[in-house]
Design goal:
This protein is an alpha/beta fold. Helices cover 38% and strands 20% of the residues. InterPro entries: ATPase_NBD, ROK, WH-like_DNA-bd_sf, WH_DNA-bd_sf.
Length: 386
Amino acid sequence: MHAVLQAERWPSKADIARETGLSGQAASVIVNRLIEGGLLIKRDKVRGQIGQPSTPIAPNPDGAFSLGIKIGRRSVEALLVDLLGKELGASRVRYEAPLPEPAMATAIAQATGLLGHLPAAARERVVGLGVAMPDEIHAWATELDLPVGALDGWRTADVAGALERATGLPVSLYNDASAACAAEMIAGNAITTRSALYIYLGTFVGGGVVLDGRLYQGEQRNAGAIGSMPTGRRLDGGPPAQLIHSASIFLLEAALAAAGLAPSTALADGQGDEANAIFDAWSETATAELSRAVVSALSVIDFQAIVVDGLLPPVWRQRVTARLAAALEGFNRSGLTPTTVAAGSIGPMARVLGAALLPLKARFSPDTDLLVRSGTAARPADTARV
């Protein structure tokens, strides 16, 4: 029934019965209970059609709410959404390093602050709090130019417990890139196939996996961790470098800062000749290594689509996607099936949006999980088949 109600049109009770296979009486009983519970509302009658006027049924935006928190390597973000996923309030605090105590204090302050804006009656309708954050955030101090051990507090931090005690809400933890992938599946338009490799170009590159139309998080909640995939080059004579060392945004930020440019400004608009030259140099290296990772992934799972999203402004996101598609053309891919390469549609908000939407999905669509919406198509300008 949830899928029916999430369609573009508002169905009547008869439509719901027909499309769900329920009897008319069963559909009417269920709909009436949901209306009484405040989750559904009746719209104005539709007249002028054959037969009796019908009364459309729609989700009540104020029927439920959800809160999302993203704890990242450069910022903490919070987002409050209604039942339809509409933003009701947001907060973002940037920092130079994700030190555990101040980051957690910020997350708690953001969560309680956003909840405080809701009336008491609405507060009781908040179904949960989702937290999106990198796995093993403590392991990347060196890459962030921090002293060894500076992030060790994350090893024992009880993130879910601290937020649950502060808000009184049930808290669920998600890998940040998987949460971003979920946001694209639920609210975006780039994942339209039943399998996809989702790439999030964040401070550190990460990924998500879609299999059989569902987000696959893995037995240990870490599927799609392409940032840890080894590359051909070595760092200071040590073991092979990982993809994070060549396809992550922190490298682009460092190059922009070294040139005297403000990374936050460049990443906001993608303007300026010097910033674009620096971006092109970074993306050439990034896509060379990223394309190897993608081909390796395609040899294990025949993903129908590769979707690239992240912190880049739309103009840069399109260019890096096109460059990746071109790089894939240069490989001998005998024995591998073709795939499409498309730019993601959500951007920097994907991780916190996914964190906010996932509790709603868990509450109201537990059996269907994250099914790919049917009848949608990627925008032709954003998609290349290789």
